[in-house]
Amino acid sequence: MSAQAAPVDGAGQRPPAGATVAELTERFGQDFAAARAQIGRVIVGHQEIVEGVLIALFCGGHCLLEGVPGLGKTLLIRSLARALRLSFTRIQFTPDLMPADITGTMVVSEEDDPATGRKDRRFTFARGPIFAQMVLADEINRATPKTQSALLEAMAERSVTVGGVSHALDRPFFVMATQNPLEQEGTYPLPEAQLDRFFFKLDVRTSARAELFEVLLRTTGGVQEEPSPVLDSAQILGHQELVRRVAVAPHVQDYVVRLVLATHPKGTPGGGEFSTPMVDRFVRVGASPRAGQAITLAAKCRALIQGRPAASIDDARSVALAALRHRLILNFEAQAQGATSDEILRNILETLPLEAPGMPGAGPAALRG
């Protein structure tokens, strides 16, 4: 009962050597659309979530998805791994999960020694489930902080150290973590410093009437759709490199800077110059420089999706909520009044001027060949 996704012309093909900027940009848009179409064969609706996850992947970041169970979060990343020919593992976080259960551990192995005829015992490293290109950290807030930090170290360093030996992770390496906002008993909320490691935080909402109707048709019938592979590791790594080459005009970069600074209330270091009364009232600590990096990279990626070689202020505004919502620390009054990070950020986006005097030095003006 589900419709087949139309193929995208040219998707999945490698660009020719010496390809021009226009050709690389066009190929990026085709590949992004192809990956999104393949996921759409399995996932009904949630277009913003699918696009956000893909943007985070092509920017080299990681995603945190928050939503109640049963909304297709696990199916999303499993479908993404199949569409991109990437290895996939799922880690179910529980209170008794240990760091070695994620990273791996040293084990004793026995081998026959031909010279002596005896068993030769030695320590070998048994890899954990973190050694995959796409990792689903399901209900990450159910594990202890010690175990959470083991995963987040791998996210930041792209390597795992066990027994004094560092083991590099395959690239691209992408972690999608999920957490349930309803159940708080027996959970360990991620500390702010660890939340900051996630490129995006995406809120997965319940499907609308028409979407739920289609979900039931697809999942209770006799035919199950499967995504077809359209990209591989080398192509994804090439696209990640291309994203960083996209131009950001000085006034766009300055808008991102002011957007991040606007989350800092008066009385905090660097705060007050661009903050709104709502920020001063409800925010205790604003966003870190990582927020500006995430907004800039995501804006570059969005420009490529639309076939443009330079990011715009609209690109930055469109990704601001996903990049900032988990990086604000609200005070007690915000909790008492029911104010949310999204409401505060929308207030900033509505009031922050697109341009302001005192802009720092100029940046790149065009996509570097």
Structure description:
By secondary structure, the chain is an alpha/beta fold. It has 2 domains: 18-218, 3-Layer(aba) Sandwich (Rossmann fold); 246-360, Magnesium chelatase subunit I, C-Terminal domain (Helicase, Ruva Protein, domain 3, Orthogonal Bundle), CATH 1.10.8.80. The protein contains 14 helices and 13 strands. The strands form 5 sheets. A 5-stranded parallel beta sheet has the order 2-5-8-1-9. The protein has a two-stranded antiparallel ribbon with strand order 3-4. A hairpin with a 2-residue loop joins strand 6 and strand 7 (165-168). The termini are far apart.
Our Rg estimate from Cα atoms comes to 23 Å
Q: Detail the poorly predicted runs.
A: 1-9
Mean of residue pLDDT values: 85
Query: What is the class of the largest domain in the CATH system?
Result: Alpha Beta
The count of domains is: 2
Which sequence of strands runs across the widest sheet?
A: 2-5-8-1-9
Helix content: 40-55%
What is the tally of helical segments?
14
Q: Name the CATH superfamily classification of the largest domain.
A: P-loop containing nucleotide triphosphate hydrolases
What is the H-and-E element order? Answer: HHEHEHEEEHEEEHEHHEHHEHEHEHH
Topology, number of strands? 13
Binned strand content: 15-25%
CATH topology of the largest domain: Rossmann fold
Largest sheet: 5 strands, parallel
Shape: globular
